[in-house]
TrEMBL record:
Record-stated family: Belongs to the MscS (TC 1.A.23) family.
Organism: Bradyrhizobium cajani
Gene3D superfamilies registered for this protein in UniProt: 1.10.287.1260, 2.30.30.60
Membrane topology, from the record: Multi-pass membrane protein
Residues covered by the Mechanosensitive ion channel MscS domain: 103-168
Residue ranges annotated for the Mechanosensitive ion channel transmembrane helices 2/3 domain, each copy included: 61-101
Record keywords: Cell inner membrane, Cell membrane, Ion channel, Ion transport, Membrane, Transmembrane, Transmembrane helix, Transport
Protein name: Small-conductance mechanosensitive channel
Quaternary assembly: Homoheptamer.
Domain of life of the organism encoding this protein: Bacteria
Keyword Membrane recorded: yes
GO cellular component, one term: plasma membrane
C-alpha cells in the first residue's frame, strides 16, 4: 500500500487551516455573544418599561443563541452537515433528554419564572430554605444576596418547585413585636427608655408610633413580681430583623444595668 504524501500534505494543510479558522471563529463568537448581551441589556434598560428581571433573562438568552449559531458554523466548517446532525440528535433525543432532564427542567422553570414573575430584582424573598435579595435570573440559575452579602445560587427548578415568600410584594410596612420578662418595679422606666430609643430610629414608621405595654404577669410573687413587656413597632419588611435585634440588644443592656 502506497501513501500519497502530496494528498496527505494537502489534507493536513486543509484541516489545519480549518482548525485555525474554527478557533478564530469561536473566539470571535465568544466576544460577539458578550457584546450582544451587553447591547441588549443597554437597549432594554434605556426604555425603563421593561422589568430588570426580563432584561437579564432576554440578554442571557441572546448570548446563548449567538453561541449556538457559532457552534453550528464551526461544525459546518469541518464538513459536518447540520441536517445529518439534526437527524442524529432526533434519533438520540430520548437519551439526551434523560441525561439532561435536570438542566432542561431548570431551563423550563426559568421560562415559567420569567412569564409569571413572582419576584423582581431587589425583592426580599425566602425560597427553598434560603433568604436574600434577588439579584438576577438567568436561564438556569436564580441569584440571591444574603443579608451578610453572601452569594446564593439556586437552580431554577428548585425555585419554581418551592414555596416563594416575597416580603416586598405588597407596599406598606411590617411589624416588629418583641416580648421579654422584666421586674414589675422596673417595667415603666424600662418602657420609657425603649420608647425614646425607638423614636430616634429613622427606620420606624412615623405614621404609627411604637408602643411598649405590659402584656401579662409571669410571676405573681409579692416579693419579686415579674411581668412580660411587649414592644411593637411598624417598619419596612426589609428592616424588621435589624430593628428587632436592636430592640433586643437595647433591652438586654438596660436589664443588665438595672
Amino acid at each position: 500500500m502506497t501513501i500519497n504524501f502530496d494528498t496527505l500534505k494537502a489534507s493536513l494543510v486543509l484541516y489545519g487551516l480549518n482548525a485555525v479558522y474554527a478557533i478564530l471563529l469561536l473566539a470571535v463568537g465568544w466576544y460577539l455573544s458578550g457584546a450582544m448581551q451587553r447591547f441588549v441589556t443597554r437597549v432594554l434598560s434605556v426604555t425603563h418599561r421593561v422589568d430588570a428581571l426580563v432584561t437579564l433573562f432576554v440578554a442571557s438568552l441572546v448570548r446563548y443563541a449567538v453561541l449556538a449559531v457559532v457552534g453550528i458554523a464551526v461544525l459546518q466548517l469541518f464538513g459536518i452537515q447540520t441536517a445529518s446532525l439534526v437527524a442524529v440528535l432526533g434519533a438520540t433525543s430520548l437519551a439526551i433528554g434523560l441525561a439532561l432532564q435536570g438542566t432542561l427542567s431548570n431551563l423550563a422553570a426559568g421560562v415559567m419564572l420569567l412569564l409569571f414573575r413572582p419576584f423582581h430584582i431587589g425583592d426580599d424573598v425566602e425560597v427553598a430554605g434560603k433568604a436574600g435579595k434577588v439579584r438576577s435570573l438567568s436561564l438556569f440559575m436564580t441569584e440571591l444576596v444574603a443579608p451578610d452579602n453572601t452569594q446564593i445560587l439556586l437552580p431554577n427548578g428548585q425555585v419554581w418547585g418551592a414555596a416563594i415568600i416575597n416580603h416586598s410584594a405588597y407596599p406598606g410596612t411590617g411589624e416588629v413585636k418583641v416580648t421579654f420578662p422584666v421586674r414589675a418595679g422596673a417595667a415603666n422606666a424600662l418602657a420609657d427608655q425603649i420608647l425614646r430609643e425607638l423614636r430616634d430610629d429613622p427606620r420606624i414608621d412615623d405614621r404609627a408610633a411604637p408602643t411598649v405595654n405590659v402584656s401579662k404577669v409571669i410571676a405573681a410573687d409579692p416579693a419579686a413580681p415579674v411581668v412580660e413587656l411587649t414592644v411593637s413597632a411598624k417598619v419596612r419588611p426589609s428592616d424588621a430583623d435589624a430593628v428587632r435585634q436592636r430592640v433586643l440588644d437595647h433591652a438586654s443592656a438596660l436589664l443588665a444595668a438595672a
